[in-house]
From TrEMBL:
Domain of life: Bacteria
Keyword Lipid metabolism annotated: yes
Enzyme Commission identifier(s): 4.2.1.17
Entry's family note: Belongs to the enoyl-CoA hydratase/isomerase family.
Protein name: Enoyl-CoA hydratase
Extent of the signal sequence: none
């Protein structure tokens, strides 16, 4: 349980999220994930990284119970910094990151997937940002990397989800496979990359990031400023508590 890293095959590092029941990560886990991905990317033996999760869903975002239990706001600061670090670690990883998504991918999960290089999804995968229903903002930066601008806004304001097949249509999901085949499908792509000269692949990743029109780090941190504002007004506390009371 927690965050683990192993070498599934030569040159392929696999990082796994495992936080039952829904992979909602506490503040420290986001920092740990950032450290794990950064360490794997710096390892010269790593030619490609696969990010995956155990359980019925890839990631439900942050642990709202932790936020509600903390009266002095240290948890919200920790979560915001941790999410920024984890999303940034995926984006800045010196090697390509292939993400394997099953079930739900919500909130912070969108931040991870949106910053990845290649997305492979199970047929049951769905993606969404319920932030406005939780009194928070953020990861519109990353949702905008998965869908066109007006669809992003509709999904964001309604807190609705989009399925893997629709993202395949938009070109942001590379393959959609039966859930039982998800891990192998991610490894198939990873093997193809890992077989290439890592000197070239690492420079290719750096070059592609260098021509990216979207400043993902600055854009996400800008969004987070409004999350702090909502916490100061009390709107965030009320929304989180209403969600927790429902279930």
């Amino acid at each position: 349980m927690g965050i683990t890293r192993n070498a599934a095959e030569t040159s392929i590092s696999v990082v796994t999220l495992d936080f039952p029941p829904v992979n909602a990560l506490p503040a420290q886990a986001w920092h740990d994930l950032a450290d794990t991905i950064t360490e794997a990317g710096r390892d010269p033996a790593t030619h490609v990284l696969v990010l995956r999760a155990e359980g019925r869903g890839f990631c439900a975002g942050v642990d709202l119970k932790e936020l509600q239990a903390d009266p002095d706001r240290a948890a919200i600061i920790g979560v915001n910094r941790g999410c920024a670090a984890a999303f940034g670690a995926v984006y800045d990883c010196p090697v390509p990151v292939v993400v394997a998504v099953q079930g739900f991918c919500l909130g912070g999960g969108i931040g991870l997937v949106g910053n990845a290089d290649i997305v492979v999804a199970a047929e049951d995968a769905s993606f969404g940002l319920p932030e406005v229903d939780r009194g928070a903002l953020g990861a519109a930066t990353h949702l905008a990397r998965l869908v066109p601008q007006h669809l992003m806004r509709a999904l964001y304001f309604t807190a609705s989800r989009i399925d893997a097949r629709a993202l395949l249509h938009h070109g942001s999901v590379y393959r959609v496979v039966p859930r039982a085949e998800l891990d192998e499908a991610a490894l198939v792509v990873a093997r193809e990359i890992a077989a290439k000269d890592p000197r070239v692949i690492r420079r290719a990743k750096e070059a592609i990031n260098g021509i990216d029109p979207q400043p993902v780090h600055r854009s996400y941190r800008y969004e987070q400023g409004f999350t702090f504002e909502l916490n100061l007004t009390g709107a965030a506390d009320e929304a989180r508590q209403a969600f927790l009371d429902r279930g």
